[in-house]
Design goal:
alpha/beta, five-stranded parallel β-sheet
């Protein structure tokens, strides 16, 4: 990434309210970003495999998605040599130990349970913005 370019984020989320809240929280963040939204797992993989499409620097992935769930998307991403380096933050309502364990077994970079409180949800997204887009050094698209 060169200085001044926005960070590319792919949000894979089917809940319209969560999409809107995530967009608002990221707009208020400290790092310029370009957010692409996929409403299900099939659409997410189509976006990621589209020739010439910009690669996201970060993926925010819900687990409970229509057509292809987040676990299947994660497994596909991490099995693809051209995609596996992209950090994936699982951001989901599930706090089930089996989902947490499976996500890490599939090489998720972190697992966050969405808070039900709106203000806490916005704070979580801002924390993701602060940590993943400010503190962490992400690989360039050509790495």
């Amino acid at each position: 990434m060169s200085e001044g370019e926005p960070i590319e984020i792919l949000l894979v989320e089917d809940n319209a309210a969560d999409v809107r809240l995530t967009q608002e929280a990221l707009q208020e963040g400290t790092v310029r970003n370009h957010l692409t939204v996929a409403r299900d797992g099939v659409e997410a993989l189509e976006i990621l495999q589209r020739p010439g499409a910009p690669r996201p620097d970060l993926i925010l992935l819900d687990l409970n998605l229509p057509r292809k769930d987040g676990r299947q998307v994660l497994a596909t991403l991490k099995a693809d040599a051209s995609l596996k380096h992209i950090p994936v933050v699982v951001l989901t309502t599930s706090s089930a130990e089996v989902d947490i364990l499976k996500s890490y077994q599939l090489h998720a970079n972190c697992y966050i349970t969405k808070p039900v409180d709106l203000e806490q949800f916005v704070n979580v997204v801002r924390s993701i913005d602060e940590f993943w887009l400010t503190v962490v050094k992400l690989p360039s698209e050509h790495a």
